[in-house]
Design goal:
Methane Monooxygenase Hydroxylase, Chain G, domain 1; binds 2-acetamido-2-deoxy-beta-D-glucopyranose; 24 helices; transmembrane; mainly alpha; rod-shaped; glycoprotein; 818 residues; signal; Prominin 1a
Length: 818
């Protein structure tokens, strides 16, 4: 009773510290951080509940073999609840048949032997049954005596072996008492370890709640960075490109302005420059024309040259005429107007507003975060409250006291045990002594008979020693009749008790069939399926059998799982409440990002204005046509070189000098005017082409950029719920994941490491070793040995009687006539 109460209190105590959850239904949380809870402090149990009998094991095995022959039937399984009494009785008799037969034989022996002895005695007193002191002389007397002696000594040896076997078993039992004390002591020590360590283990489990708390608090404090950051990142996939698109438009605007300015400037330069160039070229043309009027040209040899030069003169003219091109000042003004608004800054504002998401999240979730923090403390204090509610320490202290008390009680009965063992020892030795007495008489008888044997003596003239030998043998027979029925009675009783215990308790225990019987439904209490949960929790349907308890403890599992203590204190339920209320706290989590404005309307207007600056109205074709014409119709340097060459062909004179002078003037014009104009033209070429490109795709680009910005804005203002919910769920699962890791850790710890119940199974195993290996095996071997001896008494009686005839001095003898 004390035990059971202690156990139940222990269970209550344990459950108070346990925290467990079975929230396997929810999807696996993306647990980023794996929490490290360290190792639960564990104790070492000393008891080795295992016994190896040593040399006497051979005798044990012989005894077991004998029992197997007597009772080969396997242990009856599940047949114990048969309703029919007669059938049951028959089955029991069938099962016990070997025992019944042996016991009947034993009883027969016990009852018949004294009777036979009495009759034999009476018979002999009437000079019958070999009582007549007369021995017939036969030729084979010697041979017969030798045969009888041999047979007799064989039986005596078996007889002696039996006695030694019984004696060894008797001594073994006494010597195992020391092992017994050691085993009991180490079991109790393990129970102490169990009781001392469990509170520390539970405290350790509870203390690790802080780790969870710290992680959760960290995530709560940084909700902006973690949750807001993730929302920001997720939305950024749409927002960033949109805003970048706007930002690139500002670049386009600046480039457009630059190009327009370049066009404007270079057009002016070109217009002015070509007019000047045209003037100087016509001057040169006029001047050359005049020079060619020189009389030298009339000479037939020079005429050709002069004519050639004159014919090329019209080509000395400008090619591109820019005066008819409309300038771009109108567009430039409008672009400058557009550029007065700083679109870049507006975009920066949009970015800043969007990047403020973490702060927005922090602000908007403040209430919920506070709520969860409160919940966190709540759970923590509930854990502590529960610990205080069930006083583990005090319970285990009481348990320890109980163990100490039990220990001292056990120590107290050791003297009694020793005394009882002494009496038992005396009894067994007495029984052995009876056999030894018979043995002694027989042995001495034979010894005397052999020593005093005289080959030449006739039966009537046998010596005193020989006669004494024969008498001693007869005394041995007498003692045999006196003691053997006592011995057989005791042996039969021991055999029935010990054999059945071995067959019905010890063997089934070793094959674990005993547990099946114990676990037979409705066995202990007819209304209960399983009696252990019935007693402990009043719930006999619970799947907790003696065998599951024993084997769980033997595997050194925690008592929480072994005893299904979740029945008393359901960690899953406890934490389910917390997790469910935690989840519910998060349900109210709403993040509203409508405050974020990506692009103010001014910026949009600015972009639209940019498309309306009219750069598409520029006559790019006209520009490019002029640009492609080049500055002059012919290359002036070429022209000058050719002029020089032609001048060289002329005879020396004024014309030649004049022509060379003109060639130089043309070169001057090229260097001073054409080259700068070409540069301007190149600039104009580039700028106009750039403008052409820009203007062609500008409307589409602006439309796309605006659409992207609008879409991103719509997403943030109206469609962010999806993203936010998704990220909030992940965030929630991360936090709940910490709890789950903790709960899982606690569950495994409770199952495998906390309050491991090996001492309990050790107690059962120890009981088995004490009861079966120490006590029962020795006892069975004792009756086995003694039984062998007693059985060999029968032939030895007959042989002794026969042998005595050969040693005792006869009264008469056969007289042979010669
Ligand atoms: C937790 O409790 C809720 C209701 O309180 C229940 O619906 C849910 O199934 C429980 N979860 C588990 C894993 O037991
Ligand atoms: C405008 O002219 C400047 C200097 O002449 C030049 O560096 C720049 O590249 C030109 N811009 C464009 C768009 O052609
Ligand atoms: C250039 O064009 C203008 C108008 O079209 C014209 O008046 C002028 O004469 C032209 N100049 C040359 C050199 O052809
Ligand atoms: C422990 O023992 C003390 C005194 O024997 C008793 O008052 C207390 O209630 C016991 N505690 C438990 C948990 O059984
Ligand atoms: C413990 O609670 C969980 C969830 O509430 C439940 O599924 C389980 O069956 C309970 N266990 C016991 C032994 O009552
Ligand atoms: C803590 O315990 C109280 C009272 O037992 C209970 O009302 C509350 O729901 C518990 N809180 C949690 C988070 O389990
Ligand atoms: C104008 O620019 C284009 C491309 O940059 C080039 O192919 C072409 O030759 C240029 N024309 C002149 C006259 O420089
Ligand atoms: C071009 O003409 C102007 C005046 O008409 C003159 O000053 C200038 O020197 C001339 N340039 C060349 C290279 O002849
Ligand atoms: C906005 O939400 C609707 C439905 O909730 C969805 O079909 C649509 O794809 C979402 N738009 C964006 C841009 O995410």
């Amino acid at each position: 009773m004390l035990w059971k109460t202690g156990l139940i209190f222990l269970c209550w105590g344990l459950t108070s510290g346990e925290l467990q959850d079975r929230q396997s239904g929810t999807p696996a949380a993306p647990a980023r951080t794996t929490l490290d809870f360290g190792l639960v402090p564990s104790g070492v149990y000393d008891t080795v509940a295992y016994y190896e009998p040593g040399a006497i094991g051979i005798l044990f095995n012989m005894m077991h073999a004998f029992l197997y022959v007597v009772q080969p039937n396997p242990f009856p399984e599940g047949e114990l609840s048969l309703p029919e009494n007669i059938v049951l009785t028959l089955q029991v008799i069938y099962y016990e048949l070997g025992f019944v037969v042996c016991a009947a034989l034993g009883l027969l022996f016990t009852v018949l032997l004294p009777l036979v002895g009495l009759l034999f005695c009476l018979c002999r007193c009437c000079d019958n049954c070999g009582g007549e002191m007369h021995q017939r002389q036969r030729k084979n007397t010697d041979c017969l005596r030798g045969l009888l002696t041999t047979l007799w000594s064989v039986f005596m040896k078996l007889f002696m072996a039996g006695v030694l076997c019984a004696y060894a078993a008797n001594q073994n039992l006494s010597s195992q008492l020391k092992s017994m004390r050691r085993l009991v002591k180490s079991n109790l020590k393990d129970l102490h370890t169990f009781a001392n360590q469990t509170p520390a283990q539970i405290d350790y489990l509870i203390s690790k709640y802080d780790t969870v708390k710290q992680h959760v608090l960290h995530d709560l404090e940084n909700v902006g960075v973690i949750l807001g950051g993730r929302i920001h990142e997720e939305l950024g996939k749409d927002v960033q490109p949109a805003l970048n698109g706007v930002l690139s438009m500002t670049g386009t605007m600046r480039d457009t302005k630059d190009a327009l300015e370049n066009v404007s400037l270079s057009l002016e330069t070109l217009q002015e420059g070509t007019v000047k160039l045209q003037a100087n070229l016509s001057l040169v043309r006029g001047s050359l024309s005049n020079a060619l009027n020189d009389p030298v040209c009339t000479h037939p040899q020079s005429f050709e040259i002069c004519h050639n030069i004159r014919s090329t003169l019209p080509k000395l003219e400008i090619a591109a005429n820019y005066s008819s091109l409309t300038d771009v000042t109108n567009q430039l003004d409008k672009v400058n107007e557009v550029l007065k608004t700083d679109l870049g800054q507006i975009v920066e504002k949009g970015f800043a507003s969007f990047n403020d998401t973490p702060n927005l999240v922090t602000d908007q979730t403040r209430n919920i975060v506070e709520g969860v923090k409160v919940l966190l403390d709540d759970v923590g204090s509930n854990v502590t409250t529960f610990t205080k509610l069930f006083p583990v320490h005090s319970t285990l202290t009481n348990f320890t006291k109980m163990i100490s008390h039990t220990h001292s009680q056990i120590e107290d009965i050791y003297p009694q045990v020793d005394q009882m063992d002494f009496y038992r020892w005396i009894c067994c030795i007495t029984l052995c002594c009876m056999v030894v007495l018979i043995l002694t008489f027989n042995f001495l008888g034979l010894l005397c008979g052999i020593l005093g044997f005289d080959r030449h003596a006739t039966p009537t003239t046998r010596g005193c020693v020989s006669n004494t030998g024969g008498n001693l043998l007869m005394a041995g027979v007498g003692f045999s009749f006196l003691f053997s029925w006592v011995l057989m009675g005791v042996i039969t009783a021991l055999f029935l008790a010990g054999g059945n215990l071995e067959k019905l308790v010890c063997e089934p225990f070793q094959t674990r069939q005993l547990f099946k019987v114990l676990d037979t439904p409705n066995l202990v209490n007819s209304a209960w399926k399983n009696f252990i949960p019935g007693y402990l929790y009043n719930d006999p349907e619970l799947d907790l059998t003696a065998y599951s308890l024993y084997s769980n403890c033997k595997d050194n599992r925690g008592i929480y799982s072994a005893l299904h203590l979740d029945k008393v204190f359901n960690i899953s339920a406890f934490f389910n409440t917390s997790v469910v209320s935690g989840s519910r706290k998060f349900e109210g989590m709403k993040v509203d990002l409508r405050g974020i404005i990506l692009l103010e309307s001014e910026g949009k207007q600015n972009l639209i204005s940019f498309t309306e600056t009219g750069i598409n109205e520029i006559d790019f074709a006209a520009y490019l046509e002029e640009v492609n014409k080049g500055v002059t119709r012919i290359d002036l340097v070429d022209f000058a070189s050719r002029l020089d060459a032609q001048a060289d062909q002329l005879s020396k004179g004024t014309l030649q000098t004049s022509l060379k002078g003109h060639a130089n003037t043309i070169r001057q014009i090229h260097i001073q005017q054409v080259i700068p104009l070409e540069k301007s033209m190149s600039t104009l070429n580039q700028s106009i082409r750039l403008l052409e490109r820009t203007s062609s795709d500008l409307p589409v680009r602006v439309r796309d950029v605006l659409a992207a910005v609008d879409a991103a804005q719509y997403l943030i203002s109206h469609n962010a719920t999806f993203v936010i919910n998704q990220e909030t769920e992940k965030y929630k699962q991360t936090i709940i994941g910490y709890f789950k890791q903790y709960i899982d850790w606690i569950r495994t710890s409770l199952a495998l490491e906390v309050a491991t119940c090996k001492p309990l199974s050790n107690i059962v195993d120890t009981a088995e070793i004490l009861g079966c290996s120490f006590l029962l095996d020795s006892m069975n071997t004792f009756w086995f040995g003694l039984g062998c001896s007693t059985l060999f008494l029968l032939p030895s009686i007959i042989l002794s009687v026969k042998l005595a005839k050969f040693y005792r001095r006869m009264d008469t003898e056969d007289v042979y006539d010669e």
